[in-house]
Specification:
15 strands, homodimer, three-stranded antiparallel β-sheet, mainly beta
């Protein structure tokens, strides 16, 4: 199988699309982010990479708290809009008709229409070059009751979005089930 | 829309599944990781969260380099196996029939069968609690020629896997295209 060198590249596989929220000068703002990650298990932490000059970044530094909201496929228009426009010019909450609510933290605005909402407190900010890597401890998780099956989160109801980078530049749904985890690999034990 | 509180939770939306590689005591080993993230743009960096006692973790600390390999849906069996078993007991490369090659870095083993391979040098290791967050600078990207269309990466040929956590516990394909990025959101500009 021939391999081609592409030089150092980021985001070459699809990543989850999230709406990261913060209060900036006491007003809620949201930006679309695909450069996110899970950072720790106990306590639960998440990471978000953000350019230094971002308006949302300013709010996160003001309050040392932020939110992570998981939009569903039917919010793709609003999600894309939140990646197109800066909150310094436009009130995105109004344009997107977001219903904003708060949980445990005073300055982590949450979007009611998003099926999942995380409230996060900043524990680290690493300046890595073009971006800050912001690590937040998850303080609370909210899920829409309509996205539960037997009281548990159901991905087929949450309908999250994946972001596929250039040249495709598209939002994609999470697709067919390929296999169960910690299960199909057992088949290879016969080769041990 | 009623919301339910779930307490602090990680991995509540599907994440990409990657095979992270390192040489441990000079022998290549790979583990399945979904707790990854994009950390920086220029220079390109990636983050991986890993429990401290992991065998692969030991190799990363020995060499301060690692690889990130993107498996395709037809490698789901091998990928799952690499999440089931520790390299301290089993030679996963042999069991999985991985063809290992090296690029720029001497100690970042790459899997030829994976359509995308990143070579990374460690720039930060943050101890966050149960896990270390390992931040690596991407030194080189390899892509299988068969996964290109007009010389560019084609997600429909790469066929990456997403990991959906409990209660589903399943690997899923990347699915239908929902919309183009930096495009569909323009429809909301009329509301500004």
């Amino acid at each position: 199988m021939a391999k081609i060198l592409m030089g150092p590249q980021t985001l070459i596989y699809p990543m989850p699309v999230l709406l990261v929220g913060a209060n900036v000068d006491d007003k809620p703002n949201f930006m679309a982010v695909a450069w996110c990650g899970i950072a720790n298990g106990e306590p639960p932490m998440i990471s978000v990479a953000m350019r230094h000059h971002r308006y949302t970044h300013r709010g996160i530094r003001q309050n040392l708290s932020f939110s992570v909201n998981v939009p569903s496929t039917d919010m793709v228009r609003e999600t894309d809009y939140c990646g197109l426009i800066s909150g310094s010019k436009i009130n995105k909450v109004e344009v997107c008709h977001f219903k904003v609510f708060y949980g445990k933290l005073d300055n982590a605005p949450l979007i009611e229409q998003c099926p999942i909402n995380l409230e996060c407190k900043v524990v680290h900010i690493l300046d890595l070059g073009s971006h800050s890597l912001i690590v937040g401890r998850i303080e609370e998780t909210h899920i829409s009751e309509s996205c539960l099956t037997d009281g548990k989160p159901d991905v087929s109801k949450i309908k999250p979005l994946a972001y596929t980078t250039a040249p495709a530049r598209q939002y994609q749904a999470i697709g067919d089930v390929i296999a169960k985890t910690y299960s199909i690999g057992e088949e290879l034990r016969a080769r041990e």
